[in-house]
Amino acid sequence: MLYITEVEEYIRVDPKLFGLPTSEAISQQLEDTYIDYYNKELGKVVSIIKILNIGEGVIIPGDGAAYYKSKFELLVWKPELHELIYGKIAEITNFGAFIDMGFMKGMIHISQTMDDYVSFSDAGSLSGKSSGRVLKAGDLCVARVVAISHKGDEPKIGLTMRQPGLGKTDWLKEDKIKKKKEEEKLVKAQEKESKTKGSKKK
After folding, report:
1. Does residue 31 lie in a domain region?
2. How far apart are CA 6 and CA 4, in angstroms?
3. Does the residue 195 lie in any domain?
4. What is the pTM of this model?
């Protein structure tokens, strides 16, 4: 889920940035510090939106840098259980697939890629035995977050595509067309039955 978060803290401005206007120096320092930053509570920083306030600079003895108490807004993405995500398959392995969600990658275990018996092919794709469906690198997909682990520098995100409305976007289109045809077939059958009953009454 994307959030706009307000943060207030002391920003350490490196001496090499002293020649710049204070706001520009802090902006550069924020870029260096926060872009690609991840924190369990905060989430993954996507962008620094704007600096709201800059206080007076403070110098700490023994440290050549200056510290400015600053308030700023960040655009962050924080993964949440059951959240729907849209992304592209980045890699296929013999145990599943990795999907690029834009801000970070998630993993779909082979058993969660589709509602079928799935096998890994030498061509580097995953194939469903009954459906004949194939999942490969570059495919666009819709998945759901089912597990989040915060061990390490970045979270490990587990995904599923087995639930209704999830999977490769081409499959979803196929399912939609199939469902529409079934509904049309059902309507025709009901109309035919209704006409048959009407003729019997006469």
Report:
1. yes
2. 7
3. no
4. 0.77
pLDDT of residue 197: 67
pLDDT < 70 regions, the chain = 197-202
Residue pair 142/84 in contact by the 8 Å Cβ criterion: yes
Which helix (H) or strand (E) is 131 found in, with range?
Answer: none
- Degrees (nearest 5) of the Cα angle 99, 175, 103? 20
DSSP 1: -
- Spatial CA neighbour of 168 closest among 106, 82, 88: 88
| C-alpha distance from residue 21 to each of 107, 172, 191 (Å) | 44, 53, 77
Task: Encode pLDDT of 112-140 as tens digits.
Answer: 999 999 999 888 999 999 999 999 999 99
Asked if 92 and 70 sit in the same domain, the reply is: no
Residue ending a domain, among 77, 110, 128, is 77
| Alpha helices, H only, the chain | 22-34, 169-201
Q: Which domain holds residue 145?
A: 84-175
Which two tokens mark 58? Answer: 């403070």
Q: Is residue 30 part of a domain?
A: yes
| Longest alpha-carbon distance in the chain | 103
Say how many C-beta atoms besides its own lie within 10 A of residue 186's C-beta.
Answer: 10
Convert the pLDDT of each residue in 16-26 to its tens digit: 888 899 999 99
The confidence score (pLDDT) of residue 199 equals: 62
Structure tokens at 132: 């004949």
The predicted pLDDT at position 156 comes to 92
